[in-house]
Amino acid sequence: MAEASKALSPLDAKRQIEYMERVFSLNEKHAIDMGLRRKVFVLTLGCQQNEADSERLLGMALKMGYEKTEVPDDASLIIVNTCAIREHAEKRALSLVGQYKHIKAKNPELIIVVCGCMVVQEHRVNDIKHRYPYVDILFGPSLIHKMPEHIYNRMSGSKRIFDPDDKIYTFAEGLPVCRESSFKAWVSIMYGCNNFCSYCIVPYVRGRERSRKREDVINEVRELVEKGYKDITLLGQNVNSYGVDSGFDYDFADLLSDIDKIEGDYIIHFMTSHPKNASKKLIDVMADSKHVARHFHLPMQSGSDSVLRAMNRRYDFEKYIGILDYIREKMPECTVSSDIIVGFPTETDKDFEDTLAALERARFDMIYSFQYSPRKGTPAAEMVQIEQSVKQERFDRMLALQNSISLENNKKTEGKTLRVLCEGESKNNTDTYFGRTEGGKIVFFEPCPENIGKFVDVNIERGDTFALYGKII
Ligand code: SAM
Ligand code: SF4
After folding, report:
1. What are the residues whose beta carbons fall under 8 Å from the beta carbon of 75, sequence distance 6 or more?
2. What is the pLDDT of residues 82-122, one digit of tens each?
3. Looking at the chain, which terminus has fewer C-beta neighbours within 10 angstroms, N or C?
4. Is the C-beta atom of 237 inside 6 A of ligand 2?
């Protein structure tokens, strides 16, 4: 049975604001006594939801008087926001936490916080308790609003704090947020997931679906647009079931349609949509909208019906391709991306060939591809596993095929003029700037510092596998 959700009450938020003020006073005293401000370093692993959560953690830390630093050695507060989706993400988190041991040895007043999806799992809580004694505070993703209270208590001499999660809280409305970008923003519209895909840990660590109130979401988007944000992404594990938990006759398509009415020069993205309830109504709203980006991220996971069944995805390839065809019928210019897992336990050679055939048919613009990673406590982890060498070989074949399809799609943009949100200098080459089309394609062009955070029209001269190259017109 679904757990009841509990909105964070204004009283809970007020209580945390009081704790922020208390920590602020301690940090002010330190700054006056030592002539030096305490600093916070935040490290985020995993998905966009974690990035959004980290912006709230940083917002609270700044309110508590910490200054942001990019250097963990300089920090008095280190926050590691972890991910549990694949084993690799957990190993990375643990290895990074391990590296902070020497910083704590040099600076005993350092507070190390480990939060996020990884630390909801009992075996990981035990790992941290026993093998990482220098970690001070641990809390799960539904309890990020409690960080000020935990930090204050730890600063005041309390024992190490372990608060894995109760998975019922909805959004911490009214708490501060420090956004990474001044023109791109995340807006969480719901938390948790009810789908229990057999490979996935998310429902176990993030709990059941809890939707934010529509007026809170719409007001947040309106404020962002008024502040000049250009690209706003609505987040949820399955945005298509927005509102179902609240029992009102108001769904994600209605929310999107209401957000679209906000006046301004901006685009709206959303992720992720589950194909089992991607409705025609939603696609119609997108097609008629002014601000919703012509981009659909629709994870297929596999092209084989028997694997989809074993994954508990509750659609088959025919249903999936029907949605895709409808998207392209209504919005021929829409880019489509997907997630694919190879090496799921029951996947035979034939199943894998079905996935390749599905990619040929679907012709995605891009995919996020993963080798299946067993997650403790999920049904698929108990099934007979596929050898790593087979997974790798399938993965390589799939990528080679998808790369050729992406190249073919990207070549079709040559000679076209695309509207691109200019993000700034390219990481690898300061002589080049980059941005993204509304469909999420990366575009490189000449430097134009005056256009950072603005839409520019770029004439595409070359389409490559992973990016487009052009000139601003
Ligand atoms: N809720 C989204 C959905 O269902 O499309 C996805 C959320 S998950 C953070 C992102 C992707 O990670 C999934 O679409 C899936 O492809 C992949 N994933 C999840 N669990 C996995 C596992 N155990 N091994 C490999 N990939 C996994
Ligand atoms: Fe995981 Fe499936 Fe939920 Fe996505 S829909 S978060 S893959 S359980």
Report:
1. 39, 40, 41, 69, 103, 110
2. 999 999 999 999 999 999 999 999 999 999 999 999 999 99
3. N
4. yes
d(CA 88, CA 82): 11
Helix (H) or strand (E) holding 455: strand 455-463
DSSP state of 468: E
Distance of alpha carbon 439 from alpha carbon 23, whole angstroms: 43
Number of the ligand 1 atom closest to the C-alpha atom of 200: 20
Ligand 2 atom nearest 203 alpha carbon: 8
What is the C-alpha to C-alpha distance for residues 19 and 8, in angstroms, rounded to an integer? 16
DSSP 3-state of 169: strand
Overall pTM > 0.90: yes
The H or E element spanning position 338 is strand 335-342
Q: Is 117 in the pocket of ligand 2 (CB under 6 A)?
A: no
Report the distance separating Cα 424 and Cα 435, nearest Å.
7
Could you give the CA distance from residue 103 to residue 74 in angstroms, rounded to a whole number?
9
The encoded tokens of residue 69 equal 């630093």
Give the tens place of pLDDT for each residue, 145-199.
999 999 999 999 999 999 987 666 656 678 899 999 999 999 999 999 999 999 9
Residues flanking ligand 1, CB < 6 Å: 47, 85-86, 199-200, 237-238, 272, 274, 299, 301, 339, 341, 370, 372-373, 375
The model's confidence at residue 247, banded by pLDDT at 50, 70 and 90, is confident
pLDDT for res 9 = 66
d(C-alpha 81, C-alpha 55), whole Å: 11
Q: Which atom of ligand 1 is nearest to the CA of 375?
A: 23
Q: Give the range among 15-19, 246-250, 353-357, 393-397 with minimum mean pLDDT.
A: 246-250
